[in-house]
Specification:
With 613 residues, this protein is an alpha+beta fold. It is 36% helix and 33% strand. About 9% of the residues have low confidence.
Length: 613
């Protein structure tokens, strides 16, 4: 042992330190050390007792399959002045559960599995019942959704084939966006001519006659120039020029009259010639030059607004499944259109059409020729007519003058509408409409028949249209038939055929009037080849046949030539100092001009008949 004061090593029997004299205390007589040893022994003993409980250990091992627990040895030694390392620190044991608790948990797991299986079986049964109901009664339960989807798909198919028709070339005047100039040159020469009452000598002189027109229209300045050049078989020429601006219109044909003749287009107090008896040339030019663009944009606007009208009316109904053919998968639906809602929708459509500048302009063009009034007046007149029509709709709504519409839809397996039928009565006039649509693999065509009837009198409008793609050919066919109870019938058909590969183009137009008062047939048949040269379009005409036939006379002409775009960037302005204005002349001065033109005309016809110009 050692001295507790100076640390000197002593004998076990020593009572005092031999170096410092300090009294030595015996360690085996210290009770606190004995108590500490007893405390440590108890801890070790309890740890050994817990680790030897095999039943509880097995239960814990079942619940923690991926965990392992090692028994602690009973002879574990502890050092008084050292701390145990962290890695050897025993992990806290989970709370011990008895066997009954574990068994209950197993039963819970088993019950959850059974419950899930039952739920899956129930869902399968419900799905089977639901499928049976949808297959057999789905059209009846969800008729409106089916009809709406069919209307949408029908419009898409129609639009798809309308875009195919846009591939067919159109050689009317087109605007050059850089200089606001549209320009075209057309050349036609008579190959053959035949006639009934027309003198054969005249017809023989016509053979080889040609006319060439150069047209220019500046949309920015509203200037129009055109030059017509006539030539006989000997290539002898004469020409005429027409010039128009917002203020004047002039014509010059040197072989008929030496000066340029003109008319003031601005109305003023000095004008003697009544403007009612002549048409303002600048307005006609504006109409013709803008017709192509206005017509195309007007048709697009009408299609869009009509689509909205039909969609709003047809989808605001409750449809019922009338019948279903399982073999052909044809479905027939019936509904009743509320007359008030239908008329309100029509009123909205008319107001939208009135506000659209393209629809308004094209409609005013028609009134321009019918009423003979200037364009700005016909446009305001058109607005007034539409307003009166809308007022009539308001009256019909207020006094309930329109019956509800019985509507029938037939839809095929591709969800395309095949047939639309509806009937109604407006102020005692019956209206029945039947629309047939057919969608082929590469075609879409429709027939529309509308009948207005009152007692025994009736008027029928029939429209037939077909767009078809066969190999490299695109065909566009349209026919309009108007007939009455008096056996009057007017037919207008327009057919185009274009090959996108070899650029062959044909265009046929037939206009037939068959009535008790008149029989008239006009035919126009063109065959040619389309091409693009230096970004300019051109149509080479192999044959253009014009046929006219009435009960009294007939004649046929066959032409060849071309139609092409130009790009000269030039329009001329006439020198007004050289113009003789006939609208502020006296009657005597006008008579002198007429006489000179008459004499020169007789002389020209004599030379024309002899083949000498």
């Amino acid at each position: 042992m050692f001295c507790g004061k100076c640390g000197t090593k002593l004998d076990n029997s020593a009572k005092f330190c031999g170096k410092c004299g300090t009294k030595v205390n015996k360690p085996n007589n210290n009770p606190s050390v004995n108590n500490l040893n007893s405390f440590i022994g108890n801890i070790v003993k309890k740890g050994e007792e817990q680790s030897t409980d095999k039943d509880i250990f097995n239960q814990l091992e079942e619940e923690n399959e991926n965990k392992s627990s090692k028994k602690e040895k009973s002879n574990t030694k502890f050092k008084m002045n050292s701390k145990p390392k962290k890695k050897n620190k025993p992990k806290p044991r989970p709370k011990v559960k008895n066997k009954k608790t574990v068994q209950k948990k197993k039963h819970k797991k088993l019950n959850m599995k059974v419950l899930i299986s039952i739920m899956v079986i129930a869902l399968v049964v419900i799905a089977g019942i639901g499928s049976f109901i949808l297959i057999n009664y789905g059209d009846d339960l969800f008729a409106n959704n089916f009809v709406k989807n069919s209307i949408s798909k029908t419009f898409k198919e129609f639009g798809k084939y309308s875009k195919k028709a846009d591939l067919i070339p159109n050689l009317l005047l087109r605007e050059n966006s850089e200089n606001k100039l549209t320009e075209r040159e057309m050349y036609l020469e008579i190959k053959e001519s035949q006639g009934g009452l027309i003198n054969e000598n005249i017809l023989s002189s016509l053979k080889g006659l040609s006319v060439k027109t150069n047209e220019k229209y500046n949309t920015e300045k509203n200037l129009f120039n055109t030059k017509l050049t006539f030539a006989n078989s000997k290539k002898e020429e004469m020409y005429g020029e027409i010039f128009s601006s917002p203020s004047v219109a002039t014509v010059s044909i040197p072989d008929l009259y030496s000066d340029t003749l003109g008319i003031n287009l601005n109305d003023n107090d000095d004008t003697i010639v009544n403007s009612q008896y002549y048409t303002k040339l600048s307005e006609v030019v504006e109409l013709l030059s803008e017709y192509e663009t206005t017509y195309a944009e007007c048709m697009n606007a009408i299609n869009d607004k009509s689509k909205n009208l039909v969609t709003n009316i047809f989808t605001n109904c409750e449809y019922e499944l009338d019948s279903k053919d399982k073999e052909s998968n044809i479905r027939v639906y019936n509904t009743t259109l509320d007359n008030k809602y239908m008329l309100e929708s029509l009123k909205t459509f008319m107001n939208d059409a009135k506000e659209d500048e393209h629809i308004r302009k094209l409609s005013s063009y028609a009134l321009y020729f019918i009423e003979g009034k200037p364009l700005h007046l016909t446009e305001s007149a058109l607005t007034g007519k539409i307003d009166r029509f809308i007022a009539n709709i308001d009256n019909a709504i207020e006094f309930n003058r329109v019956e509800d519409v019985e509507l029938k839809l037939v839809i095929n397996e591709d969800k395309i509408i095949n047939n639309i039928i509806f009937n109604t009565v407006i102020d005692g006039i019956g209206i029945s409409v039947n629309i047939d649509l057919e969608n082929g693999e590469k075609s879409f065509d429709y027939n529309i028949n509308m009948k207005l009837s009152n007692d025994t009198s009736y008027i029928i409008f029939s429209i037939k249209s077909l767009t078809k793609e066969v190999d490299d050919n695109i065909k566009q066919q349209n026919t309009l038939i108007f007939s009455t109870s008096l056996d009057d019938k007017i037919t207008l058909s327009f057919n185009e055929d274009y090959n996108v590969k070899d650029y062959n183009y044909s265009n046929n137009i037939d206009f037939i009037v068959d009535s008790v008062f008149e029989n008239l047939s006009v035919g126009y048949n063109l065959n040619g080849k389309y091409q693009i040269e230096k970004d300019l379009e051109k149509l080479n005409i192999d044959s253009l046949k014009l046929n006219v036939k009435t009960e009294l006379y007939r004649f046929n002409f066959d032409f060849n030539g071309y139609v092409q775009q130009q790009n000269s960037n030039l329009t001329e302005e006439v020198n007004l100092d050289n113009v003789v204005f006939i609208d502020n002349m006296s009657e005597e001065e006008i008579d002198k001009i007429k006489l000179e033109i008459y004499k020169n005309g007789i002389e020209f016809l004599d030379l024309f008949g002899k083949g000498k110009w």
